Amino acid sequence: MGEERAAVAEVIDLDRFRQKMAADQGFRTWLARFKEQFGPQTRLRDLSPQTLLYLATPGEENLYVNFDLIMGARGLGGSLRFRLDDIDYATKLKIMDTAFALVDRQRFEVMRRLGWVKEPPGLDTPIIELVQQAWRLGANFAREVPRLSPDHPQYEAYLKLSTMDQTVFIRRLIPQAVAEFKARVEGEDR
Question: Which of 56, 103, 40, 147 is nearest to 48 (CA)?
Answer without folding.
Answer: 56
